[in-house]
Amino acid sequence: MSDDPPAAAFAWRKLLLRYETLLLGVLVAEWLFFYFAGTTTNRRGVVVGFGTIDRQFDILRHSCEIGLLAVALTPVILTGGIDLSVGSLLGLCAILFGKIWHDGGLSIHAAIALTLAGGALAGGLNAVLITALRLPPLIVTLGTYSLFRGLAEAITHGAVTYTDFPGSFLFLGQERCLGLPTQAWGSLTVALAIWVLVHRTTVGRSLRAIGFSPEGARYAGLPVRRHLTLIYMIAGFIAAVAAIIYTARLGQAKADAGTGYELFAITAVVLGGTSIFGGTGTVHGTMIGVAAIAVLKNGLACLPAVMRLNAAEEMSGLLTGVLLLAALTAGVLPKILSGRRGRLPASAKT
Amino acid sequence: MKFFSRRLGLLAVLCLSEVVAATAADSKLVVAMLPKAKGNAYFLSAKGGAERAAKELGVELLFDGPTDTNAAKQNEIVENWITLGVDVLAVAAENKESLSTALRKAQKQGIKVIAYDSDALPDARSFFVNQATPQGIGYALMDEAARLCDSEGDFAIITASLTASNQREWQKHIEVRLREKYPKMRLVAVRPSDDIKDQAQSEATALLSANPNLKLLMAISSPGVPGAAEAVKQAGKAGQVKVIGLGLPNENKRYVHEGVTNSIILWDTDHLGYLTIYAGVALAKGELKAGATSFTAGALGSFEVRGDNILLGKPVIFNKANIDLFDF
Predict the structure, then answer these.
(1) What architecture is domain B27-132+269-312?
(2) Is residue A176 part of a domain?
(3) pLDDT tier at B3 (50, 70, 90 boundaries)?
(4) What is the per-residue DSSP string for A174-193?
(5) Out of A40, A163, A298, whose CB is closest to B23?
(6) Is residue A88, in this structure, part of any structural domain at all?
(7) What predicted TM-score, i.e. pTM, was given to this entire model?
(8) Which of A120, A321, B133, B220 is 20 to 30 A from residue A202's alpha carbon, by CA?
(9) Is B84 part of the contact surface with chain A (CB cutoff 8 Å)?
(10) Domain that holds residue A165
(11) Residue B65 · residue B105 · CB < 8 Å
(12) Are strands B261-266 and B316-318 parallel, antiparallel or unpaired?
């Protein structure tokens, strides 16, 4: 294959024109823009802003939780499903973890293990409702979205905040390990595992088949229910991982943890090129999507003009929306254009 | 393609010129102020004072916070400011422990940290601008009650819950003041309202019918004040039973103008913002050091410093005459 120049060139062109590659280009352009426009030297002569290594680590730290949820949602959306409950489950797991450790008097390790099990179990509840009762995922997880958040608030009466975690636990979210923020290692490991599952196993292939046609997949003899159960449980498990990281990063567990994160995660997945109707999408695309949003959000906060307006938050929400809509448009534009081009000669003939 | 690259080049030049402009202007000290929620009228009023102070001192003020109270967002904003290399952080902590982790990081990088309104952990900030001591609040409430009742007669307190730590502290000082200065006044009851207006109203109604000689209701949780006022109004006892309390002027304006509520007691949030910025800048310039016993803040004059607390001083009394001058 490689000694056949035209075929190799074709493969290269295909790779370059792939959606993920283009998105990566956007990410790099974005990064370079903020690097040049958002780096300054302050009064004390110190280089500050976007171009500092601390800043890059902050971006990494701040995108771990949403990144994890987005990675968890990718296989779910691949099957044409959705899980709106992951943000609420993050909150519930954070509370669960705080409660088990603080009130239950168990060790941090035991609390982490129980929380992860709890997350998987909650994901299992979604799975059972979806596969056994054949309810639409959107409706089921809309229900559990309220249920999980409500439980978290009920457990804490909306008032208790768990704090005073030991330093060895906070290390997970606030310190560096082998040159990277500690939680980045955990998140990357989870992402890699999901990447292998989706792109290198038969399970991953069957998830796409389910996304294209659930009935077809069933008739083809694929274990649709079992695979759906698996990915919703994984989503719950990963939400629990994100909850642990979130708690360690802030040093507090409160019932409002992760509010609205599910929407950020879905945005990243869709921006990453996964079709919301299922069937197509990649985990690496999702990760580039997460990075593109995180860089945009953090970069904007470094621009002197935005800083003076004190509106980094609002601006990043607005531009994330623009970015997503632009990406969606760019996705369908070639199809529309080629359709028109196909028609053009025909009309020229007459 | 060429067209695009030229355009990009132009864009880059534009951005660079902006950076240069910003660096030139950045020779000013930069103070970043974090509220608990940036749309909250209480903090907007503090921002007004902070802006005035920043103008007088010739420093640049950044004011940003979560749109609703959110500890996680507070941390992200502070971490953003750290990498932007601001000189001073002035913060109102939503959650002590979680914000303090970010503040310690800031201090390690030489950024001066000052807390206002709601304190961080002592090791994570240099000073706390304390808006009101429990004693200041308790004494002001009791003095105002005595003034309205001519220092004699029965009164009752509506509190948040019987276990709320702030309220218990205030109540202790109210009782001390009562014993020491107003022997002819009598505290007949203390009732909880759980920080709910409706409950404060029903408790107040019960108090009014059980104590026909009651001269004054004192609500020491902010939802309790309009609740007590509504009860007095519906019982047709406006003016006969006086209402005072600790609350926000805007929540009580209506009752004050109707003559049901006599006075609202709170600190001046505008001054709180002003003092915070003055103290923060003095800290960065090395003019305010640990061990100071007083601090002078521009037009507002001198303030007492007790340990690492800068005291805003006496609370303000809002009544019919001045309540419209305040908007929070």
Answers:
(1) 3-Layer(aba) Sandwich (3.40)
(2) yes
(3) very low
(4) HSEETTEEHHHHHHHHHHHH
(5) A40
(6) yes
(7) 0.79
(8) A120
(9) yes
(10) 53-259+274-279
(11) no
(12) antiparallel
